[in-house]
Specification:
The protein contains 3 helices and no strands. The chain is mainly alpha-helical. Helix content is about 50%, strand content about 0%.
């Protein structure tokens, strides 16, 4: 993972979930191990993420602030 990607993920986790990325991973590990659920899929590129969000009701994702995001509702998190 690129440093910029790591920083973006860290900011999203802390501001939206009020948790660190490590805490989010630990949560999902526990949920997976108990057989209750699986984590949402990760996408490898902004276009793939946007396509997933457009096609999946209730889906959210995070992208760099300067990335174009046609067809999705954008919420700026600072």
């Amino acid at each position: 993972m690129l440093l910029a990607d790591r920083q973006l993920r860290d900011a999203f986790c802390r501001q939206v979930h009020q948790r660190t990325p490590g805490a989010i991973s630990a949560y999902w590990n526990q949920v997976i191990f108990s057989g209750r659920d699986v984590p949402p899929p990760e996408r490898q590129s902004v276009p793939e993420l946007l396509e997933y969000v457009r096609r999946t009701p209730g889906a959210i994702g995070y992208i760099p602030a300067d990335a174009p995001a046609p067809g999705v509702r954008v919420i700026v998190v600072r």
